[in-house]
């Protein structure tokens, strides 16, 4: 097993996740089996209870793990399926060690950060690195470890992990362990000069903690000059070919190509004694073609994303990627317009009419409307307004999780005339509870108490748009994350009026997919299809939305769900 540790310096949010994913993609393109581990130093057990404004979206895995969004990058780039133990947190490690101490496994010894916490980190990494993540179920050959050690090297919360890997480099042996340090080369507007001192200081701090970088990846706004590369090489004690530049690019698909162009395959082959050719395979050539195609797109499709966490794009990272994958598949450039759902509400019109009318202007000019998942009552009335507009004006619409539930609420209020119809999440005493909490929902603890992970959805009918988009399969398996569900006792009322529940769980009790009759594309799904979308395998519900928004869904279905050349 070969281990590649990716650390960060100067600032957090520098792009370690994309760099780690891109390195994995390159090595996979060379025919190697690659897995990935993300280390987060917070004390939370997992990401499940975070507000999206803390660390971005909560990504859900097949096994129900609620993890950091970077694991979504690994899955999309490498086309693998990870597990909850691929995301290590301080909380998980300490809980593991404390449980062992309570069990008496330490035989009366004093339990300390060194060696017990550091040993637990190393054992966890070695055990998880062996878990198969590809469809062929073979043990990985390379493990890429992204260590968000408090964002940057030197933060107090990441120190046990730094010490663990200082020890681990000797346990794994030099030929099996490589450290990549991602740093920032700022360029102040006042001088226009690219500064190397932050990188020098970051590498010095890393060396002082016992880790020496084998590669230094320098992030910058613009391409870095050769003189800067030579300076970093000289003052950071590495060869010039060990300094890699990654400047801001038009799309993340370009990053693996930039790395490959700077000789990273040859370096890894020599440094880790890898049994690979120097030349990239067909997989990387496909990435190159995809990146070039992305940059040449001319036709634009606009989608309005109506949500409550619109101030930070990372809150809907997987949704954005799923839309982007689908747009790229049909040769359109995505114009994603984020609309704060509260700004569509009547209360906003009274408080700030300019914001209200701007939000509605965005919604009206969009080619399609998406209402993603979420929790809490804030902004729900605005989402209901957007859904009502999509239904009545025959605008292509996709509702995901809460978006599907609210589509049911909107239909009940405006088509069934149940004016007080609601979800028990928002009104526990409603006379028409069209969305109810699930029997297994635990109202006590919040963490890990939802219906989580990959579940099977069975199609009730062959006459379903979504079934055709999924390749006319009898069932699909997608990832879930919800506490509430459509009330199964009321579904017949909706079906009589044209809102069809075309998919349900294996028992037939839980409603999973809705489709509205006599509408170009009005679809709701209880699951989160965005978590399974891949750059070269777009998610069918999102692809359907983009096809409908560009007016090409009928032609696509007539061709047997084949994209035009």
From TrEMBL:
Q: What is its EC number?
A: 6.3.4.2
Asked whether the UniProt record includes ATP-binding among its keywords, one would answer: yes
Q: Which residues form the CTP synthase N-terminal domain?
A: 2-274
This protein's superkingdom? Eukaryota
InterPro entries linked to this entry: Class_I_gatase-like, CTP_synthase, CTP_synthase_N, GATASE, GATase1_CTP_Synthase, P-loop_NTPase
* SUPFAM superfamilies linked to this entry: Class I glutamine amidotransferase-like, P-loop containing nucleoside triphosphate hydrolases
Q: Which UniProt keywords apply?
A: ATP-binding, Glutamine amidotransferase, Ligase, Nucleotide-binding, Pyrimidine biosynthesis
The record's section on Pfam families has: CTP_synth_N (PF06418), GATase (PF00117)
User: Quick one: which pathway?
Assistant: Pyrimidine metabolism; CTP biosynthesis via de novo pathway; CTP from UDP: step 2/2
Q: Name one GO biological process term.
A: 'de novo' CTP biosynthetic process
Under Gene Ontology molecular function, one entry of this record is: CTP synthase activity
Q: Which stretches make up the Glutamine amidotransferase domain?
A: 312-541
Q: Which family does it belong to?
A: Belongs to the CTP synthase family.
Q: What does this protein do?
A: Catalyzes the ATP-dependent amination of UTP to CTP with either L-glutamine or ammonia as the source of nitrogen. Constitutes the rate-limiting enzyme in the synthesis of cytosine nucleotides.
Q: What is the name attached to this protein's record?
A: CTP synthase
Encoded by which gene?
Ctps2
